[in-house]
Amino acid sequence: MHDDHSDLGILIGTDRRSIGIGAVPAVLAALVVAAMVVLWPGDTPDVDLSQLGYTDQLVSAEVAEVRPGGCSYDPTQDCVVVRFTVLSGPTPGVPDIKEYAIVPGSPDFEVGQKVVMGYTRDAEPEFRYAFADFDRRPVLWAVAGVFALAVVGLGRMRGLAALGGLAASVAVLMWFIVPGIIGGEDPVLVATVGASAIAFLALYMAHGFNRLTHVALIGTFGALVVTALLSAATVAAAGFTGFAEEDSFIIAFVGTVDVGGLVLAGIVLGALGALDDVTVTQASAVWEIRQADPSMSPSALYAAGLRVGRDHIASTVNTLLLAYAGASMPLLLRFALTNQPLGMVLNSEVIAVEVVRTLVGSVGLVSAVPITTWLAARVAVRIPAKVRGDG
Q1: Structural contact between residues 212 and 25, judged by C-beta atoms closer than 8 angstroms
Q2: Among the listed residues 258, 252, 261, the one whose alpha carbon sits nearest the alpha carbon of residue 231
Q3: Which end of the chain, N or C, is less packed with Cβ atoms under 10 Å?
């Protein structure tokens, strides 16, 4: 009978501590929801980008014929005449014939190939359609299907929940962050609030509502604050204009977007994905270490978890570097061909932005390890092993 009362007391005490650690995410969630309500985008501005070469709409088409030969305007130059059959849009079934010079980078057409054509309603009949790109949607759907099968096949219900979190993250990105920035809201504020909402959705949908996820979320928010503050200071000191890339000039045409703030917003969003990974891994590692040795003190548990975190950070930082380098490979090759000194190459804004993105993001990751490990150690030691199954 005494044992029953003792067990009941342990459980009651555990529930109180669970409420305590769960109160912080509840307060953060209320703040994020309130901020999203205030910043929720209204109607996006109606911008005419036809002056920049953008068409009214895109339609599907198919390559019906490919005929190589001399160019009509210069018989000494090789061209290819392509006949397209329009499959959708306002005039399906209408053929369209285009001539393309064969030069490096020109598209390589094959009969039966599906393509995307730009349609300009008010243009002359012979200029209403223009080749925009190849239709890659079937390939993208196939790769997405393989990805989903792999995640669900290995993760089962947890993997399915992770896919739900991924879909929710995309929804926040496309329905809140992007429209909010286009609508004229501060990009940094919108990105930070949106990143916070994504952190909630991704973590709790993938890992459930439990103490481990509470700890990981608080660690993520702490590291996100460090990343945002350091990013703001670095971007201001470096004097980034945001106009290093061609797309920035197109965005500036809208007139309501703070292009300079997009650099900082991109750093904050880019760091979030890796932060989630680090904080969940650290909290889980501390949980497992505590499970293996329930007698460990908070300081010993923190030290053991920190050793795991050092190994994780070493590999994650290298992953960030390679990810950004891979995305910027054509740009790196272009600068290498100019034979400029490395210091001058790094000094150019388009490269410096990626350097800052990598370094600041890495500092955020490093800060996430001690924050999450310390909090996880304090929470884990207060939960009796036999009632810690929710971790």
Answers
A1: no
A2: 261
A3: N
Tell me the whole-structure pTM to 2 decimals. Answer: 0.77
What's the 3-state SS for the chain?
A: CHHHHHHHHHHHHHHHHHHHHHHHHHHHHHHHHHHHHHHCCCCCCCCCCHHHCCCCEEEEEEEEEEEEEECCCCCCCEEEEEEEEECCCCCCCCEEEEEEECCCCCCCCCCCCEEEEEECCCCCHHHCEEEEEECCHHHHHHHHHHHHHHHHHHHHHHHHHHHHHHHHHHHHHHHHHHHHHHCCCCHHHHHHHHHHHHHHHHHHHHHCCCHHHHHHHHHHHHHHHHHHHHHHHHHHHHCCCCCCCHHHHHHHCCCCCCHHHHHHHHHHHHHHHHHHHHHHHHHHHHHHHHHHCCCCCHHHHHHHHHHHHHHHHHHHHHHHHHHHHHHCHHHHHHHHHCCCCHHHHHHCHHHHHHHHHHHHHHHHHHHHHHHHHHHHHHHHCCCCHHHCCCC
Handedness of CA 200, 202, 203, 205 (dihedral sign): positive
Position 136 pLDDT exceeds 90: yes
Burial of 306 (0-12, 13-18, 19+ CB in 10 A): middle
Gap between the Cα atoms of 140 and 120, Å rounded: 27
Per-residue pLDDT at 312: 77
Confidence check: pLDDT of 10 > 90: no
User: Angle 282-284-286 (CA atoms, 0-180°, nearest 5)?
Assistant: 70
User: Between vectors from CA 387 to CA 384 and to CA 388, what angle results, nearest 5°?
Assistant: 80
Q: What are phi and psi of 263, to 5 degrees?
A: -60, -50
pLDDT value, residue 32: 93
Does 345 score more than 60 pLDDT?
yes
pLDDT of residue 141: 95
Q: Can you tell me the distance from the alpha carbon of 281 to that of 269, in angstroms, rounded to the nearest whole number?
A: 20
The answer to whether residues 134 and 107 touch, using CB atoms and an 8 Å cutoff, is yes
Q: Taking CA 179 as the corner, what is the angle to CA 176 and CA 183, rounded to the nearest 5 degrees?
A: 125
Closest CA to 113 of 101, 125, 131: 131
pLDDT more than 90, % of the chain? 27
